Amino acid sequence: MSGFLAGLCVAVLPLLAAGFWLGRRTARPPGLAGLGTPVEHATFETLHTASLATPPLRAGLTEEAAGRSARKLRSLLGTDALCLTDREQVLVWDGAGAHHRTEIMERLAGPLDSGRGEAFPLTCDTPDCAVRWAVVAPLTVDDRVHGTLVACAPRESAVLVRAAGEVARWVSVQLELADLDQSRTRLIEAEIRALRAQISPHFIFNSLAVIASFVRTDPERARELLLEFADFTRYSFRRHGDFTTLADELHAIDHYLALVRARFGDRLSVTLQIAPEVLPVALPFLCLQPLIENAVKHGLEGKADKCRIQITAQDTGAEALVVIEDDGAGMDPGLLRRILAREVDHTGGIGLSNVDDRLRQVYGDDYGLVIETAVGAGMRVTVRLPKYQPGVHLTGRLTPK
To answer: Which of 7, 99, 221, 385 has a Cα at 20 to 30 A from 373?
Structure first.
């Protein structure tokens, strides 16, 4: 889909440039004199104007996005007026003739239903009104008409009909990309909910049971563990942002491990080697905790002696390298591949496959989990985190690339 959209953008922009050149009233912008031929001037200005209109449109067909992009779109077409509508109302009117809003909406039933553009004369009793003709081009996403682009001019023009259609196609591509961005965000949020749901009810029950066991024998210890439990659950079920810092994720892991140690005592040994310079690195929220939980579970499973877990985070220049290693039961590599591919259900597999999917979605396929394991040989999980990635911000949601 992304390749198709990119190809469509490449195909549409030259037509935009041609339409801009033919429709503009002035072919040589004064500020660009001496920088090439008139066609080159028009092409440059078209591409520049289109680039300015793109960011608002990537937010979807909303009143705010329409208001921020309408003037740039009108400049692309060189028309006296332009409006953007959804299926119910005019979102923005830029230019002359705003009193035609009601008439425009009354004439949109056909284009909205059929998905085909139309051109028609406007009726107006205002003698000095600058717009007498309207060209309607539908805005479609996945073959569904979401709204229209309407260009208004003093007279009928075949060039405007063609240019409006091409600009509407370009706007539709931006809206489709916005829809994909929103779908991607919804998917990431669903996966975070899945991870939260995966926080074992047995872990919660066992943690509370351990805390309760200390209430009479060691009230201070019970209070400390209760605070650890509260901090861990508060972090795990927070609602702010899709990303966190490595420092915050490790802090939550420390709360989790404190509760596990209270239950298993000396059976669990955890070693951390963390380079201070990687602590501010951003990463997907709840990315490492499921890996630690998996290491604890499989490290203690079927063993009467100690489980040793080592967590390291190194600075490798452009990336942070996080390695989680346990000396537990390990796993058959073939079964692991099927778990990551979601071909089989396996206790704990949701966490591994979920984290792997999220890393690939955010950073690309080169950044999936690298897992080394064998039956009886423990497990080593490596996570590579770029120190900078477009779209990864700590203050909000995943932003479009």
So the answer is: 385
